[in-house]
Each structure stands twice: as C-alpha cells, then as structure tokens.
C-alpha cells in the first residue's frame, strides 16, 4: 500500500492538477461513483500509476495474460478495490505519453464485468483481468469514460447503447 504522505508529496511535486485527494487514505470506506479501468493495449507499462494508487489496487497482469505481450504485461485495476480517486488517470495522462486510463460509472462496470462493487475492500483477492474486449481501443466502452470528450457529444440514444442508465451520473 502506498504511503499517503509520499503520494501527496509526489502529486504536488509532479503537479498533478486535478487529482482528488481523499481525506483518509489507504482504506475503502464507501462505494465509489466511478471506477478506473486501464486500456491494456495502451499501457506500456511504465509502472508509475501503481506507485500512486492510494489503496494499491493496480497490479501488473501475469505473464501471458495478454497475448503477444509475453512478460511485458500491462497493468490493470482490481475494480472491486478501487476507491475512484482519479489519481491514476491524472498520473498516466500527465506523467506518461500513454493516457491509458479512464473512469467509468460504477454501475456500468458492474453490468459489463459481472462484478459487485461494495462499500469496503472484499475479503477475497480478485486478481485483475485484462478486460480488453470492453475497455481497450475498439471495445464497447473505451471512449465513454471520464476524460473522454466523446461522451460529452453523445446523444441520449448513443449513451443508452453504451450502457449509461438514465439516472446515472454520466447520462
Ligand atoms: S501510468 Fe499508464 S502506461 Fe504507466 S503503468 Fe499506469 S496505465 Fe500503464
Ligand atoms: S482511481 Fe486509480 S488510483 Fe484511485 S483507487 Fe482507483 S485505481 Fe487506484
């Protein structure tokens, strides 16, 4: 788990402008409104975002997980543990050339990945999976996450097709 003071200091030093700094770090205490997911095909990986994640829920995928990448596997978020702080999005966009992470409405993640996102970190470890069919370039949801300009231009029908519910934050 990341040390909160070190992470805050580095965010300041590296001028990450819009990252939300949780008052309390290192423990999930409520269900977030949004969850981060990595486009695994865009992730190098430089291994910067795992250093900054305040709850340590970004891990490198195991060798051979994404075909053709061998041992040089991308990272992915353990979605059940993410607290939705947005820091990794800012880190990847500002400290690297990859811009590989987006935020997505929690309900969309639950529906798309058939997972449950609760108020606290699950007791069991659920290893990160690539989710490349859904959240990589060409996938259903890559362009609808926070940080995407495309979602702002979508009409109601397009948003519904992309999985946004009428009462959802992003609809
Ligand atoms: S900062 Fe971006 S490129 Fe670097 S490991 Fe994280 S997702 Fe991958
Ligand atoms: S938004 Fe990113 S940095 Fe924040 S908890 Fe989720 S994976 Fe970690």
Relevant terms:
7 helices, Alpha-Beta Plaits, alpha+beta, binds iron/sulfur cluster, disordered C terminus, two-stranded antiparallel sheet
How large a portion of the residues is in β-strands, by DSSP E? 5-15%
**Overall average pLDDT:** 80
Structural class: alpha+beta
SSE pattern? HEHEEHEHHHH
Sequence of strands across the biggest β-sheet: 1-4
Brief sketch in words of this structure:
The protein has helices spanning 4-13, 49-52, 87-95, 106-113, 132-135, 150-153, 156-161, and strands spanning 34-38, 58-60, 75-77, 101-105. It is an alpha+beta fold and 171 residues long. It starts with a helix and ends in a 10-residue tail after the last helix.
Report on this structure.
- It is a single chain.
- The chain is an alpha+beta fold and 171 residues long.
- The chain has a single domain, classed as Alpha-Beta Plaits (2-Layer Sandwich).
- It contains 7 helices and 4 strands.
- It binds iron/sulfur cluster (2 copies).
- One iron/sulfur cluster (SF4) binds at residues 38, 43-49, 74-75, 91-92, 96, 98, 100-101.
What's the structural blueprint in terms of helices and strands?
Elements: H1 4-13, E1 34-38, H2 49-52, E2 58-60, E3 75-77, H3 87-95, E4 101-105, H4 106-113, H5 132-135, H6 150-153, H7 156-161
One iron/sulfur cluster (SF4) is lined by residues 36, 53, 55, 57-58, 77, 82-88.
């Amino acid at each position: 788990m990341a040390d909160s003071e070190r992470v805050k200091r580095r965010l300041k030093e590296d001028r990450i402008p819009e990252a939300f700094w949780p008052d309390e770090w290192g423990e999930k205490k409520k269900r977030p409104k949004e969850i981060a997911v990595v486009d695994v095909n865009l992730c190098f990986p430089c291994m910067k975002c795992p250093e900054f994640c305040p709850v340590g829920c970004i891990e490198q995928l195991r060798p051979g997980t994404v075909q053709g990448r061998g041992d040089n596997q991308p990272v992915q978020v353990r979605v059940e543990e993410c607290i939705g702080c947005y820091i990794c999005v800012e880190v990847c966009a500002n400290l690297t050339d990859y811009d590989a992470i987006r935020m997505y409405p929690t309900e969309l993640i639950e529906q798309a990945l058939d997972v449950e996102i609760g108020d606290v970190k699950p007791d069991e470890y659920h290893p990160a999976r690539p989710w490349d069919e859904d959240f990589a370039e060409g996938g259903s949801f890559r362009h609808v996450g926070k940080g995407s300009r495309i979602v702002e231009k979508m009409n109601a029908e397009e948003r519904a097709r992309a999985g946004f519910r009428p009462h959802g934050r992003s609809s």
